[in-house]
Amino acid sequence: MASYIVGVLSKHNLARYQDYAMAGYRLIDGVEVEVAMAEAPDVQEGSFPGTSIIIMKFADDDAAAKWYASEGYQEVIPIRHESADTHFVVTFKS
Question: By Cβ atoms counted within 10 A, which residue in 5, 18, 47, 64 is the most buried?
Fold first, then answer.
């Protein structure tokens, strides 16, 4: 069954966030994942708590957990924290 990682971000340092995004694209190269992203999402109800949303669909919980816990991704998380306030919903069990 598919597993999802959903991130809601409020970017406050766009140049530094670009560093994170470029590293992120390199880190998913060769990984079986579908990525959907919306900048300034079109909100139908209420107010959206960020500037962007990212949804990553992995084949299963193991694939999502492996990618999230990977050394490469763990190394770039501080760049994300430095450049954006982030809220992540991770649906896999570790």
Answer: 64
